Amino acid sequence: MNASLLSTTRLSRSFGGLMALSELNLEVGRNSILGLIGPNGSGKTTFFNVVTGIYAATSGQVSFDGRDLTSQSPQTVYRAGISRTFQRSRLWLPLSIFDNIIMGDHKHLASGLLFNLFCRRRLKAQLKESLARARELVAIFDPDLADRLFEPVANLPMIARRRIEICRALISSPKLLLLDEPSAGMTREETFSLVDDILEIKQRVDDLTIIIIEHEMSVIERITDRCVVLNFGEKIREGTYQEVTADPQVQQAYLGVD
Amino acid sequence: MNQHPSAPVSCLPALLAVPLGAVFMALSLGSESQGLVFGLLLGGSMGLGLAHHLGWLDRAGCSAAAWPRTFGGAVLVAVAGVCLWFHDDPFVLFLIATVLVYTLACFGLNIQFGFVGVVNFAGASFVGVGCYTAAILTKHTAIPHLLVLLAGGLAAALVGSILLIPVLKTRGHYAALVTIAFALLFKIFLEVNDVMGGPQGLKSSGLKVLGWDFNRDVSLGPFEGSFYLNYVAMILALTVLGFILARRLEESWIGLKLDAVRLDELGGACFGLHVPRWKITAFTIGNFYCGVVGAFFAMMLGYIAPSNFAFGDSLILISIITLGGLGSLWGTVAATAIVILLPEKFQILQEYRFLLYAALVIVILLFRPQGLLPRPLRRYAMLQRDGS
After folding, report:
1. A1-81+174-258 domain in CATH 3.40.50.300?
2. Least enclosed by CB within 10 Å: which of A224, B64, B80, B342?
3. What is the pLDDT of residues B58-116, one digit of tens each?
4. Nearest residue of B to residue A48 by CA position?
5. Is A103's CB within 8 Å of B248's CB?
6. Torsion angle of alpha carbons A125, A127, A130, A132, nearest 10°?
7. What residue numbers bound the domain in which B31 lies?
8. Phi, psi values for residue B180, rounded to 5°
9. What is the pTM of this model?
C-alpha cells in the first residue's frame, strides 16, 4: 500500500508576478499529523486553497489517495475525502449549529426535489439520524454545546465557532483534514483544550490524516509527527519539530532570531 | 429534544389574534367613508402599538411559531369567513383575490431572493408570461383550465431559463441589472408584437373547472353570492398550496442548501455544494409560481395588456418581500395586505401609491431592515411534531 496519502510534485501557484507557492514537493503519510509552519505570507493558506480547488495550480501536480486531484473543483476535492476549516471562521452565521455542521456532510444530503418535497417520512428519518450524529460528534468537543444544536451560530463565542467548524469538517468522515490556524483568536487555555479535542478525535477515528497550519508553536510541538517550513512559497526545511526548530535558517526566517 | 421550548407554549394567543385580525380586516374592507377608514387605521396602529408594548404581540408570535399548522388553519378559516361575509360585494372580493394573487407571486420571488439570494426585478414579467400563455391557450385550444394554470407556470419557468446564463455569470447588482433589462425588454416585446395583441392586449376567457363556470354568480340552495367567490376560492387554494410547498422546501435539505448558497457560496463549494444548480432550481421554481399566478390572473381579469406588467409592478413585488422580511412567508402575507389594500381603501393615496411604496420601503430599511415579520431561525417543524 502506498504509504503517503497526499503528495504534491513541484506544485506552484503564482498571482501575477508573485510566486505564492513555488515548486513544492510534499508527502503526507497516512494517519500522520503534519504541521505546516512559516511566517505570514509564506504560502501556507495558498497551499490549502490550491489543494482544495479554490485556486487552480499554475503548474505541478496534486495526487491524493492514488488519484490525480490537480486543479479539480472544490466539490470534487470534497467528494474525494478532503475537508477543511478556514483561517477566518467561515460559518453560515444566521443558521443553527445543527445546520452548519450537517452541511459538512453535504454529500449525504438528498438533493432530489420530489424527495425533499414529498417523501416527508423518509426525510424525517434522515433528519433524526443526522441530528443524532451531529450531537454525538459535538459532544466529544463540548457536551454543553450538544444540547443547544438549534441555536444560531452567530450568538456563540469564538471557541465554540472553531469547534463547530471542525465538527463540520469531520462529520463527513474525511480521509484528510486541513486545519487552517485553529488557534487564531483564542486564548491559550482555549487553544490547549482544542488540541486535546483534536487528539481525542484522532484516537477515535481509524483513518484520519491531518495537516495543520499553526503559529502557536506549542500546538505544533504537541501534536505533529512532522513539520514542513515554508518561506516565500518554498519549502526550506522538513523534519520533526525538534529538528526543524533547531535549524538556523528556520530560526532566522520564522522565529526572528538573527 | 432541543427544539422544544422549555415550557410548552399554548396555542391560545395565536388563536385569539386571528379572529381579532379578521374582524379588523372585515371592518376596514367594509367601510366606505374615508374618515372611518382613517379612524380604523389609527385605531389599528394604536392597538398594535399597545399590544407590542404589553408583550402580547411577542406572545402571539411565539404561540403561532409553536403551532404552525393550527395557526395556518385558523388564518385560512378567518380569510374564508371574511370572504363569505362579503359574499355579495364583488369589489371587496376582487380586492381579496388581488391580495392573494400578489401573495402567491411574492412566495415565488421569496424562494428566489429570500432563500437562494437571486434577486429578480422581472417578477411582473414572469406573471405576464403566465397571463399571455393562458390568454392564448384558452382562445385557441380546449385544454382544461387547470392544465392552463400549469402551462402558465411551465411557460414562465421556460422563459426564465433564457436568463439563467446571465444570472449565473453575474452576482449581486449585476444580476439585478440583468433582470431589470429583461423586464423592460419584455414589455416592449409585447407592445410591438401584433400577434399577441400589441399595446391593446388580449382577451382571455374566464376560468372553467370541470364544467363549473367561474364567471357565473354562485347560487347554492338559499345561498347566493358574487361570481368572484369562485375566483377567491381558487386563488386561496392555490396560495395555500404554494405556501405549503414553499414551507416544505424551506424545511428540507434543499432549503438548507439554498440558504448556504445565499450566505456563502465559496464556503458551500468547499463542502460539495453545487452553487449553479441551486440557483437554477430556486430561480425556476420562483418563476413557475409567477407563471401560475399569471395564468390565473388573466382568466380572472378577462383582459390583459402589456401595461399590466410594467417594471413598476415588479418593483411592487420586490417592495412587498422586503417589507415583509426576506424569506418570511407570513411576512409576505402581511406585507401584501398592507401594500395592496392601503391605497385601495385610501382613495387619496391612489394617485401617490408609488410614493407610498417608496416611503414604506425606505422607512422599513431604515428602522426595521429585517422586515415586519423577520424570518425566524431555520428549524424543522416535523421534528417537533412527534413530541419525542
Report:
1. yes
2. B80
3. 888 888 888 888 888 999 999 999 988 888 888 889 999 999 999 999 999 999 999 99
4. B270
5. no
6. -80
7. 6-85
8. -65, -45
9. 0.90
